[in-house]
Every structure is written in structure tokens, then in C-alpha cells.
Design brief:
Distance between the termini: 22 Å
Order of helices and strands: HEEEHEEEHHHEHEHEEHHEEEEEEEEEE
Number of helices: 9
Number of strands: 20
Strand order of the largest sheet: 6-7-8-3-9-10
Low-confidence stretches: 366-394
Radius of gyration: 24 Å
Structural class: alpha+beta
Helix content: 10-25%
Length: 394
């Protein structure tokens, strides 16, 4: 047992599969999370991320495959034997204990004589030492979340798993906690695994993001790289927002593919396309598109459209337009001009974009939905989520 708890190193999943009767929740998953990194496993409900978490936690055992930290094989061990702690969406603080006693509970249970000092150090880390004598009900939701983080960190786990930890907070608090969690992770240098369906959380905090779908990792890499270049239509539709259209490669022009998208000829850099010929899904992000009353000259990538909605948000204006295929595209224009272009629903306009900003992914055969939400990811060495130890009861 001691050997499991003392495991150190990268978290690794090797060919892990989990099947429930005839349903495969996790399908031959192999991942590596470098020690000391902040990793996010991102995906919609039912994609397999929670099952992956439970297997790393020891709450479920793989049907096949291995889970390791460093060279220590944790497969088959129980959750309390693993060097892992978890912060859940529900903070699970003991209401009758003070904040200091909540944080000190784990070290006290292990018989450590300096439990109070360790608790104070952990509260210092989350910047809450002044609340040590209060009870959980006297704290705000954001403060309770930070206490839950301190209670997990006081045990100095090899890996800290964050299981949808910010879901109960309002938007402003959530954004503050995103910054706080990243600061804490950088300061303590532990491996953080963040399991979430919220793309903003994943992109804001993680060094590496993996997008999961149907029990497999579709794509993973640094957030900026993921945002810039999706490799599949699913990833393109899940992270961020983008305009998508079905296209056909009709020609080449040096470093570019020439693609017909709903009757318009557009160019895509070969290095930004996962397809060299035939059918593909073309994409460009709303903030990369410009809108014009008249057809622009000298750009080369343009498409005619009809305005259906105009939304002013202060720093930018969002235009929704319909294109020849009937799909709805979004255009974000920063409000930089004193007299911005005055467009109304029903106006005929032209859209243009730099060819080097477009991308293309394989056509999976499914129809592209209007106003597709999209994002990008790029490969990198990463790993799955980590498992929780059982919640102690006083």
C-alpha cells in the first residue's frame, strides 16, 4: 500500500478500455500527463471523461489496460491507496468544523503532529488564512472552493484531480478561480488534471487540452495550437466558434488548395488542411472574417451573404449572415471606427478573410449545422484525468 502512495512521475494510461455490458465507455485510451503540468480533459456529457476519472481514481477498474504513475502500476489498487486527491464541484466541507480543522482533518487522521501548521500553510497558499476560525457556512462559494483546494493540497498528492470544480460558481467567480487555480498549480508544481465540459475553463488554465469523444481522444495539444488548427470536424464544432462549410477541392495554386464552397472559390494553405483532395469541411473563425457592403478587391477569398441579425456588445458587433448554402455564419467586427458600417437585417453584403486563416478537416459524412461552434487542437504528449481518494468522514 505504501508503495502505491509513494508513486511519483508522469501519469500514464496504456491501452485502457472500459466496457459496461455491450457499451464501451472508454476505448483503447493511451495518454501521458507529464509530472507537474496542468492538463485538461475536455468533452461533452457521455464522452467517457468521467469513466476515465473513476478508473484513475480506483473507483472503477479497467476492462483491459494499465494505469500508472511513474513506474508504479496502480491498476487494481483502491482509491485510498493512490497518491491522488480530488476537488469536486460539491465542496463536501464539514459544516461543524472550522476552516482550519477542515483543512487539517486529513493530516490529523494520518497522525501527523504538525497538522495545524500544515493546514495554515495550505490556507496561506489559497490566500485565506484570515478565515481559518470561521465555519464553512460563513464563507462565499468562491471561498469554500478555495478551502476545498487547500484541503486537497495539504496532503501533497502526486496528482490533484479537479472534477468540474467551478460549476457551482457564477461567471465572475468562475473566472477569478480560473486565475487562482493556475497560480496555485504554478506555485506548488503538482500535476493538476482538470476534467470539464467547459471549453473556456480548459483553454484558460491548462498547459495541454485533450478533447474526448466516444471514449477516444480526438485531438490534444496546447490551447493556442488547439484553437488555431482543428484536426477533425468534432473538435472544430466543440471548442470555440467557427464558420463551417462543405467543400470540394477543385485545383491547387502553389502552397494553396483551391476549394469550391457553395459556389465560391476559396483558398486554403495546404499545411492547414487535413485533406489533399476530394470532399472536405472548410472553416474560418468569426473574428477572422471581415464584412463589406461591396465586394473587396485584392483579397481573393470572399463570399456573398445576407444579414439576418446585428448584435452590438460594446467592444464588438456580431453579424449573423446566411450564405448560398443556407447556412448561418458569424462575423465579429471590433468597434474600432468612429462611424462603423451601418448594416440592417436583409442587407446584401460580402465577407472576406485572409486565406492563411482558413482550415480544412475531413468530411465525416454528417451534414454541417448552421452556425457551427468550432475549435482547434493539435497533437502533443498528454494524459488523462486523475482519480479521487474517498471523502473522509470525521
Amino acid at each position: 500500500m505504501a508503495g502505491f502512495r509513494e508513486a511519483q512521475g508522469d501519469l500514464r494510461l496504456e491501452n485502457v478500455t472500459k466496457a459496461f455490458s455491450e457499451f464501451v465507455a472508454v476505448d483503447d485510451l493511451s495518454l501521458r500527463v507529464p509530472r507537474g503540468s496542468f492538463f485538461a480533459l475536455l468533452g461533452p456529457s457521455g464522452c467517457g471523461k468521467t469513466t476515465t476519472l473513476r478508473m484513475v481514481a480506483g473507483l472503477e477498474q479497467p476492462t483491459s489496460g494499465r494505469i500508472l504513475i511513474g513506474d508504479t502500476d496502480l491498476t487494481g489498487s483502491r482509491s485510498y491507496e493512490r497518491p491522488v486527491n480530488t476537488v469536486f464541484q460539491s465542496y463536501a466541507l464539514f459544516p461543524h468544523l472550522t476552516i482550519r480543522d477542515n483543512v487539517a482533518f486529513g493530516p490529523k487522521r494520518r497522525g501527523l503532529k504538525d497538522a495545524a501548521r500544515l493546514a495554515d500553510e495550505a490556507l496561506e497558499l489559497v490566500q485565506l488564512p484570515h478565515l481559518a476560525a470561521r465555519k464553512p457556512t460563513q464563507l462565499s462559494g468562491g471561498q469554500q472552493q478555495r478551502v476545498a483546494v487547500a484541503r486537497a493540497l495539504v496532503n501533497r498528492p502526486e496528482v490533484l484531480l479537479l472534477d468540474e470544480p467551478l460549476g457551482a460558481l457564477d461567471l465572475k467567480l468562475r473566472r477569478q478561480m480560473q486565475v487562482e487555480l493556475k497560480r496555485i498549480q504554478t506555485e506548488v508544481g503538482l500535476t493538476f488534471i482538470h476534467v470539464t465540459h467547459d471549453q473556456e475553463e480548459a483553454m484558460t488554465m491548462a498547459d495541454t487540452v485533450a478533447v474526448m469523444n466516444h471514449g477516444k481522444i480526438e485531438q490534444m495539444g496546447p490551447p493556442a495550437q488547439m484553437y488555431d488548427l482543428p484536426l477533425t470536424a468534432f473538435v472544430a464544432n466543440f471548442v470555440g466558434q467557427s464558420n463551417l462549410g462543405e467543400g470540394q477541392v477543385v485545383d491547387t495554386d502553389g502552397d494553396f488548395l483551391v476549394v469550391d464552397v457553395s459556389g465560391s472559390r476559396v483558398k486554403i494553405l495546404r499545411r492547414r488542411s487535413q485533406v489533399e483532395s476530394g470532399r472536405l469541411v472548410f472553416g474560418v473563425r468569426p473574428e477572422k472574417v471581415r464584412i463589406h457592403r461591396n465586394r473587396p478587391t485584392g483579397i481573393g477569398n470572399d463570399m456573398q451573404a445576407t444579414v439576418v441579425d446585428v448584435s452590438f456588445s460594446g467592444v464588438a458587433t456580431q453579424y449573423l449572415v446566411t450564405v448560398a448554402s443556407g447556412a448561418t455564419w458569424s462575423v465579429y467586427e471590433q468597434n474600432l471606427d468612429v462611424e462603423p458600417i451601418d448594416l440592417q437585417p436583409g442587407d446584401r453584403v460580402w465577407m472576406s478573410w485572409d486565406p492563411s486563416h482558413a482550415f480544412a478537416v475531413p468530411d465525416a459524412g454528417a451534414p454541417i449545422t448552421d452556425g457551427a461552434v468550432l475549435s482547434d487542437v493539435a497533437p502533443a504528449s498528454v494524459a488523462p484525468p486523475i482519480a479521487p481518494a474517498p471523502v473522509d468522514r470525521p
